[in-house]
């Protein structure tokens, strides 16, 4: 077999993106869209009709797909709600399919461990849709770090400011939720919109090309400025990896302006700078300057190419897996354990208003606060910010389970 047949669970929202990426790659000859799950036929009548005309098989439930597509579907993609990831991925592998699972792989470390165990039991693989690990710029940067050109990595830091409005939080039933229908979600910037950039840092300092680094400790602060959501929208994390590297992460969805992700890597032999455009500049202590970008390769498409290559046996290892995503999930779970609670920002520090058909929430001076914390490599409470609350460092080296329902003194 020299072609890989994909089925996508869903037809709208990010499922539409999966469909688009697969269709873009069909001309390369290795990938084909074979099926789509459409549960709401009334809402999606026109789309269903369109795809049927293209010869794509339509399924009306996930179970329908699992039971009836084994003869012509190789990989199932799951651009579904966070709390469904673990159960759906495991079920697909047990039915004999390989899986492309959207990030994050799951909300809790114990769910990720179940996915890893299911891979071992079934012999099937589960690729994780952390598309930035598939980026040419990130992978080249990792090669340079692995070669020792930057020396020992002492610190790695990232900041990002992406405003999100009410429409973002009303797009589905779980957006902005910590818990949904009894399931842990943790839908904040660190675990969803800006998750890639926390994961990037853990990946870049991992011990080998397709490994991420395990963490020793985590200290984090989680805040909520949007008054109508449950989870955090403004966060800062400091962590220490088992190799001693310090990791710093600063993000918010409650700003007026936008600042795309920006990362600085400090080693004993030089410094590297990476930004959202994927432009990377490295200054070595010996005077050498290295510059590169993503070579025009869209990392979203690479996610699907790599899955196809793995299925066809062209490559031995996936780029993003449950195993190398596990440190990311530990970082998020550890952040929640460290913070102990999401702190609501007092209303006198925020502004909520309508503008250009959007309902906005802005936390006063958060742009400047993040800039200062990023430069000083400290958490918000270390700056003496009025609304900030100091938290404790926790050990996560042998982290096995996250349960926010347990009393912390139990």
From TrEMBL:
One of its GO terms (molecular function) is nucleotide binding. It holds the Pfam family GFO_IDH_MocA. Residues 138-272 form the GFO/IDH/MocA-like oxidoreductase domain. InterPro entries: Gfo/Idh/MocA-like_OxRdtase_N (IPR000683), Gfo/Idh/MocA_Oxidoreductase (IPR052515), GFO_IDH_MocA-like_dom (IPR055170), NAD(P)-bd_dom_sf (IPR036291). Residues 6-130 form the Gfo/Idh/MocA-like oxidoreductase N-terminal domain. This is Uncharacterized protein. It comes from Petrotoga olearia DSM 13574. The lineage of its organism: Bacteria, Thermotogati, Thermotogota, Thermotogae, Petrotogales.
């Amino acid at each position: 077999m020299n072609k890989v047949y994909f089925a996508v669970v869903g037809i709208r929202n990010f499922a539409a993106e999966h469909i688009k990426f697969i269709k873009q790659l069909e001309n390369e000859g290795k990938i084909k869209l074979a099926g789509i799950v459409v549960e709401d036929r009334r809402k999606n009548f026109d789309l269903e009709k369109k795809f049927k005309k293209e010869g794509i098989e339509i399924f009306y439930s996930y179970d329908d797909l699992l039971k009836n597509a084994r003869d012509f579907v190789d990989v199932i993609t799951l651009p579904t709600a966070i709390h469904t990831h673990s159960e759906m991925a495991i079920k697909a592998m047990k039915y004999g399919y390989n899986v492309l699972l959207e990030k994050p792989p799951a909300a809790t470390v114990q769910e990720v461990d179940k996915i890893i165990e299911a891979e071992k039991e079934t012999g099937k693989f589960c690729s994780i849709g952390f598309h930035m690990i598939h980026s040419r710029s990130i992978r080249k940067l990792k090669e340079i770090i692995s070669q020792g050109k930057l020396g020992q990595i002492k610190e790695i830091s990232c900041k990002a400011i992406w405003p999100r409005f009410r429409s973002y939080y009303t797009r589905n039933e779980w957006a902005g939720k910590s818990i949904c229908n009894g399931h842990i979600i943790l839908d904040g910037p660190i675990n969803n919109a800006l998750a890639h950039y926390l994961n990037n840092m853990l990946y870049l300092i991992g011990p080998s090309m397709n490994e991420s680094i395990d963490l020793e400790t985590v200290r984090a602060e989680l805040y909520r400025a949007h008054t109508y959501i449950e989870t955090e929208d403004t966060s800062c994390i400091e962590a220490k990896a088992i190799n001693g590297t310090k990791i710093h992460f600063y993000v918010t969805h409650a700003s007026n302006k936008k600042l795309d992700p920006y990362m600085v890597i400090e080693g004993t032999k030089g410094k590297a700078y990476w930004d959202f455009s994927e432009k990377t500049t490295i200054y070595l202590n010996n005077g050498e300057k290295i510059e590169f970008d993503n070579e025009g390769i869209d990392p979203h498409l690479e996610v699907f190419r790599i899955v196809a290559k793995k299925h066809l046996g062209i490559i031995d290892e996936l780029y993003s897996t449950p195993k190398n995503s596990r440190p990311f999930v530990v970082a998020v779970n550890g952040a929640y354990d460290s913070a102990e609670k999401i702190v609501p920002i007092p209303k006198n520090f925020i502004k909520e208003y309508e503008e250009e058909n959007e309902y906005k929430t802005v936390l006063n001076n958060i742009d400047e606060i993040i800039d200062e914390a990023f430069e000083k490599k400290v958490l918000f409470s270390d700056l003496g910010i009025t609304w900030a609350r100091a938290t404790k460092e926790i050990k996560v080296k042998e982290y096995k389970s996250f349960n926010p329902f347990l009393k912390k003194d139990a």
